[in-house]
Amino acid sequence: MNSREDAQAIFRAAVARVDPAPMIQKAVHVEEGPAGPVLVVRTEVEEARYPLGAYDRIFATGMGKASARMALGLEASLGGRLSGGLVAVKEGHTEALSRIRLLEAGHPVPDSRSEAAAHAILGLGPSLGTVLTETDLVIVLVSGGGSAILCAPASGLSLADKAATTKLLLASGATINEVNCVRKHLSAVKGGRLAAALAPATVLALVLSDVVGDDLDAIASGPTVPDPTSYAEALEILGRHGIQEKLPPAVLAHLGAGLAGGLPETPKPGDPVFARTRTLLVGTNRLALVAAEAEARRRGYQSLILSSRITGEAREAALVYLGIGKDIASSGLPLPRPACLIAGGETTVTLRGKGKGGRNQEMALAFLAALGRSPKDGEDLCFLSAGTDGNDGPTDAAGALADLDLYRSARAAGLDPEASLGDNDSYAFFAAAGGLVMTGPTNTNVCDVQVLLVRPRA
């Protein structure tokens, strides 16, 4: 067995399973009903049906790193029934479409294109040269990254204010749910506000989840669903992470005004704005892990899915994987060799240094450093951590892999994993050591995947 090749193949099987184009084609189709054609959306757990005789037009919109391929699948499913659309995507994450126009924007930090895309989609009807009515159906394609890609600052705030706040949150180690809570309260589009803007049209949102636990209000900051969070929670998050004093004055004033009741809250459950809106989950990290496990078994590994909800500090999670790997190697628990442990989720990185990298590369580097400190029972381990979107943090790598052979060759070349970890400089380390996992943009996004392999005894 070639562990590095196997680990990458298992990861790629996970990514292939959540390719948005075939997923949307499978979920969305038109059936002939007694009263005429019906648009049907069917997932593993729910179904939505829309008699097409009730609608004069079908438009598409959306946002996120995977939304271009979601749009590609929607065009394949609906063809000429689509009247047009606008979808905002991360720069470079595009597809050749015939009826839906793509708007490229910045990620993970929003830019002027993000703001322009948000205003175009908030005014979808006028942007398409029409006015939305009750006889229109708008299909919203939502995927991870949509919070930054679609960014319309609330009145009185600038894009620079939101960008600075986002940078502070990302650097603080805040979870994605915490980041989104704050962003929803600084936005004109997030937290259910897009659903309000698309009224009186019927809205059907199809969501590819990049959030641990698949909470609909957290994915892309919940543009089409009720928001259970508040201004008070947003301020508490900022205070807990120690960044309230660093906020732009306009942001602090805006949140304070909201807390005092001077600004309207985001739409809550039961708000009439959601009477004609439905949101369905069509893809998750769990589905990707199931496909990875099938590939591992095909390659001869005893396999186990540990969890799809791994969170916390990336470098701490790495130690858990290393401990489990050593147990497998030494005692066959919880799996006999050859073994493959698979997990997913989204960890965080608290910045300590000035290096470059992402949470997956940091996890792999922490695994490598710890393996080097204590190589006993680690000879047959190979660990990979990578993002299903193909971009780990502000880098062109999906993630990285680690094993003792890589550790030894890196040390022989004068590379120090401990020093690189201390400076959060995982990208430079793996670029030199040869451990980067490179996929290019995958145009999907369902969090991260970890693969831990234990080879059979030599």
Brief account:
Helices cover 38% and strands 22% of the residues. It contains 17 helices and 15 strands.
Structure, explained:
With 458 residues, this protein is α/β, with parallel strands linked by helices. The protein has two domains: 195 residues, Glycerate kinase, MOFRL-like N-terminal domain (Rossmann fold, 3-Layer(aba) Sandwich); 169 residues, MOFRL domain (glycerate kinase, domain 1), CATH 3.40.1480.10. It is 38% helix and 22% strand. It contains 17 helices and 15 strands. It has a six-stranded parallel β-sheet with strand order 6-5-4-7-8-9, with helices on both faces. Strands 10-11-15-12-13-14 form a six-stranded mixed β-sheet, with helices on both faces. A hairpin with a 2-residue loop joins strand 1 and strand 2. Helix 13 crosses helix 14. The chain starts with a helix and ends with a strand. The model has no long low-confidence stretch (mean pLDDT 95).
Q: Which CATH class of the largest domain?
A: Alpha Beta
Shape: globular
Q: How many runs of DSSP E, i.e. beta strands?
A: 15
Proportion of strand residues? 15-25%
Q: If strands are numbered along the chain, what order do they take across the biggest sheet?
A: 6-5-4-7-8-9
Rg to the nearest angstrom?
A: 23 Å
Helix content: 25-40%
The major pleated sheet works out as:
6 strands, parallel
The CATH topology of the largest domain is: Rossmann fold
CATH architecture of the largest domain: 3-Layer(aba) Sandwich
Mean pLDDT: 95
